[in-house]
Design a protein that fits this description.
It is built from 11 helices and 14 strands. The protein is α/β, with parallel strands linked by helices. Helix 9 crosses helix 10. The longest helix has 16 residues. Belongs to the ABC transporter superfamily. Drug exporter-1 (DrugE1) (TC 3.A.1.105) family.
Length: about 325
């Protein structure tokens, strides 16, 4: 597949702080890459450099085959960008916002009107098109932001935490919009604090910490990298928690994690249902009745915590 986003050894320093330290990434055409990392890991810096909003101190990058340094104009013509905060004018209507940005992109009056109507339809904003954007709901503003970023039908779209602050229903609506864009051939680089968002949308995930990519792969590959299924118990009191942990350790042959404050026990379950049934039988024999029992696969939260904890310990 063709790499629409390619970055090699990007570095960026602010004073004594090293924001990017050898950032390297490749994203194939028509896919979503989720860029995950702790606050301050370098996600936004990387996106802003790739979107030509910042200059790297060193390294190389290209977008849609155009070099970031020597062909920045063509890069800008190939990309769209939606940042963490709304870029629309709240006084103008949705229609006026789109028309204004279309004219700024040098579309003539007829082209601007046509593209505005297309995007209002695409993002289900036609009924609110002539209302001031300041009266839009959070989800409507986000859809208007996306519409603005797509005026020139970009081949590459950068989304920097596009659903921050939205309610679950509205987030799901934005996810649908993003999937439709990708199905039409757009390549997306997505940064997000919501790991379930990356799990739902991303074809591949790159984890960044201290300005460097420390892991990459599909969501499934990253989950498998931290182990198989786990038994999780929620207990009624601290005494039960410690007793349950001893039982889980014996049943699974592993060293369980214990959270006394939340009264939870978690351990790998190498034999899945056998481990679970043995644990439940022994809990029953010990007179322990857990509030909740689950056998679950690792999540991206597990991946994120393990990788970033490891990096902090070895830093």
């Amino acid at each position: 597949m063709t790499a629409m986003i390619s970055a090699t050894d990007l570095r960026k320093t602010y004073g004594k702080k090293r924001a990017l330290d050898g950032f390297t990434l490749s994203v194939d055409e028509g896919t979503v890459c989720g860029l995950l990392g702790p606050n301050g890991a370098g996600k936004t810096t990387a996106v802003r450099i790739l979107a030509t909003l910042l200059k790297a101190d060193s390294g190389n990058a290209s977008i849609a085959g155009h070099d970031l340094t020597t062909d920045a104009g063509r890069v800008r013509a190939a990309i769209g960008f939606t940042g963490q905060f709304s870029a629309v004018d709240e006084i103008l209507t949705g229609r006026q916002n789109l028309d204004m940005f279309a004219r700024l992109y040098h579309l003539d009056r007829r082209q601007a009107r046509q593209r505005t109507d297309e995007l209002l339809d695409r993002f289900a904003l036609h009924d609110a098109a002539d209302r001031p954007a300041g009266g839009y709901s959070g989800g409507m503003r986000r859809r208007l932001d996306l519409a603005v970023s797509l005026i020139l039908a970009p081949r590459v779209l950068f989304l920097d935490e596009p659903t921050t602050g939205l309610d679950p229903r509205t987030r799901a609506e934005v996810w649908t919009d993003i999937r439709e864009l990708v199905s039409a051939g757009t390549t997306v680089l997505l940064t997000t604090q919501y790991l379930d968002e990356a799990d739902h949308l991303a074809d591949q995930i790159a984890v960044i910490d201290s300005g460097t990519i420390i892991a990459r792969g599909t969501p499934r590959e990253l989950k498998e990298s931290v182990g198989g299924d786990r038994i999780e118990l929620a207990l009624r009191d601290e005494e039960q928690t410690n007793a349950a942990a001893r039982i889980v350790a014996a049943a699974t042959g592993t060293d369980p994690g214990i959270d006394l404050h939340r009264r939870r026990v978690s351990a790998p379950a190498p034999e899945r249902f056998h481990s679970l049934s043995t644990t439940m039988r022994q809990l029953h024999e010990a007179g322990i009745d857990p509030e909740d029992v689950a056998l679950r696969q690792p999540t991206l939260d597990d991946v994120f915590i393990k990788l970033t904890d490891r990096e902090e310990k070895t830093a």
